[in-house]
Amino acid sequence: MLPIQIKNLLDRDGWTLRDATARHRGRRLEFFFTSRPTRAVTAALRRIQRADRNRFQTIGVVIAPTTAAMQRLRSCANADKFPRALFASLEELRAVAAGTIPVKSDKRGGITSFKAEILENTPVGGAQISHYRLAFKAPSLQNMQPPQFIMMDTKPARVPFGVRPVPRGQLRGAIDLTPQPLLKRPFGICRDFHPHFPIDYVKRLRLPPTLAVALYPVLPDHFDMLYKVLPHGVGTPLIAKLKRGQTVNMLGPLGRPFDVRRLRAEGVEEVHIIGGGVGMAPLILLVESLRYYGFRVKAFLGIATLQSLRYRDELAATFGEQPRDAYIYIDDLLAAGVPPEDVYVSCDSGKPARIGRGIPPANLFAGFVTDLYRRETHRSTGKTCAFTCGPNRMMELVVEITAQAGIPLRVLLEKRMGCGMGVCFSCVCKVRLADGADDYARVCTDGPLFDAKDILWKNDDSKQPSATCTCAPRS
Ligand SMILES: Cc1cc2nc3c(=O)[nH]c(=O)nc-3n(C[C@H](O)[C@H](O)[C@H](O)COP(=O)(O)OP(=O)(O)OC[C@H]3O[C@@H](n4cnc5c(N)ncnc54)[C@H](O)[C@@H]3O)c2cc1C
Ligand code: FES
Fold first, then answer.
1. What is the reported pLDDT for 161?
2. Does residue 345 register a pLDDT over 80?
């Protein structure tokens, strides 16, 4: 028998509940109560998965008595015991029924040092490759939340010590005398993948909005990051040489998590995402989370050329919705459930050619993404907030535009980092505290996400922008 609280929650969203099944316009949620994996539950979930064939019309929901028990159940080690199920806890469902949204604290959790296995390192951009998409398997990173990041070595983990004989005449090639970066490099996570869930599951899911804040998928076990190879960089050209099957030492999750459910508590309905070039990469994971909880997301993407987003056809099948014709960011946004009419693309080099996928031609623009965004700000449908990441000048303009439109803005900062854990102070940016005094914040531990109004965008000491990435234009 389901507790009355669940019935009340479903009522609010117009779903009807009978026995252990909730129904709404052809969609069904089937509830199972358990605190541990059992054969009966696994068999029932397999039946649902087989019959539904990833249409997400019917979903099994496993309800554990406590939140701690639910977290144990949704570990990816249990993925085959609860195939394609969502999880909830009675504790949280009761809290939601009483009007509380379960928002996780923004305190950092445990940081783990782990080995990630490279699955793909795919060049992007047709003939002019400057970006790569790195897919890696790392079940230890499962507590990662947007917009946290990882720090990674730029070379494969060494094979355990041992004396390897060098063949006669090959001594020269056996010793690598090129400069090696000692420090790990920071990167945001672009996508995470949950066992048994297809890449575009968020687009297919249509959860009852009130209940959704207390429903969770199994934890992810592999991830994608998108990185730009810096022309004068030491580390990124080495990362571009990583091969499938190699392992790399990583550290994470780093930085403060941001639970997007707090926006629900703030009454936000629509979220604007403004990404400049590779600055869009870490915002995609945030978009996925926003869409999961049913927020309307409008995405504004600024790029140099449309071609720079293109995958080589034969390699695209893993990521793109349309394997023969895949674009990074655009396919990711659509797979994360952003409707095509809410995807806007601007190219510095001229209006992009037709993209297809239902994106209206009126959403394509020649020029800077900030000009495109300025044009669209007044078309919000409800209480709106915005997130941005990209080059300095772009973010400063977005600060101006959102301030004029009265839209609260959060910025994702990138600074050069030494340790990623708050020790070396190489990543500081100038901020204004609540009492009006100026201070320095560490992007790695206080960020990387900041309220735009707390950032001092001009560093009075050096007359340089203090807060943002200083690397080459991030297209
Ligand atoms: C939290 C965070 C998330 C990031 N996410 C991504 C991502 O998703 N995709 C991506 O392509 N890049 C991302 N970056 C930037 C990335 O870390 C750098 O491009 C990379 O470390 C450069 O390594 P390198 O060894 O090739 O360059 P280096 O040889 O270390 O430096 C080359 C040049 O770039 C400058 N530089 C290097 N790193 C930075 C930086 N972080 N900020 C400002 N200037 C820098 C240096 O001053 C130098 O002039 C992120 C950075 C941070 C802090
Ligand atoms: S990177 Fe060392 S303190 Fe931030």
1. 53
2. yes
Ligand 2 midpoint to CA 391 (Å):
20
CA of 450 to the centre of ligand 2 (A): 16
Of 413, 426, 421, 418, nearest in space to 454 by CA:
413
**Angle, to 10 degrees, between the axis of helix 369-376 and the axis of helix 392-405?**
10
- Span 295-320, mean pLDDT? 74
- Enter the CATH code of domain 261-413: 3.40.50.80
Kindly indicate the confidence band of residue 400, based on its pLDDT and cuts at 50, 70 and 90: very high
Spell out the residues 6+ positions from residue 429 whose beta carbon is closer than 8 angstroms to its own: 413, 415, 440, 441, 443, 447, 450, 455, 456, 466, 467, 468
62 contacts 41 by C-beta, under 8 angstroms: yes
Protein residue with least CA distance to atom 4, ligand 1: 187
> Ligand 1 within 6 A of 323 CB?
no
Q: Which pair of tokens denotes residue 204?
A: 């297919």
* Ligand that lies nearest to the alpha carbon of residue 427, given by its number in the listed order: 2
300/346 Cα distance (integer angstroms): 8
Q: CATH topology for 112-156+180-204+216-254?
A: Elongation Factor Tu (Ef-tu); domain 3 (2.40.30)
**What residue spans define the domains of the chain?**
4-97, 112-156+180-204+216-254, 261-413
What is the β-pairing status of strands 270-276 and 296-303?
parallel
Computed over every residue of the chain, the mean pLDDT equals 87
Q: What is the pLDDT of residue 378?
A: 77
User: Side-chain half-sphere of 392: how many Cα atoms within 13 Å?
Assistant: 16
b/e code 115-125 from CB counts within 10 Å (16+ = b): bbbbbbbbebb
Could you write out the DSSP letters of every residue in 12-29? HTT-EEETTEEEETTEEE
- For ligand 2, say whether the CB of 217 is within 6 Å of any of its atoms: no
Res. 106: pLDDT tops 90: no
Whether the Cβ atoms of residue 332 and residue 137 lie closer than 8 Å to each other: no
Contact (CB, 8 A) for 365 and 372: yes
Task: Kindly give the residue spans of alpha helices, DSSP state H, lying in 80-153.
Answer: 90-97
Residue 92 tokens, joined = 């949280």
pTM check: above 0.85: yes
Question: What is the arithmetic mean of pLDDT over 114-141?
Answer: 89
* H/E run at residue 346: strand 343-347
Rounded to whole angstroms, the Cα distance separating 389 from 410 reads 9
Q: Is 447 a pocket residue for ligand 2 (Cβ < 6 Å)?
A: no
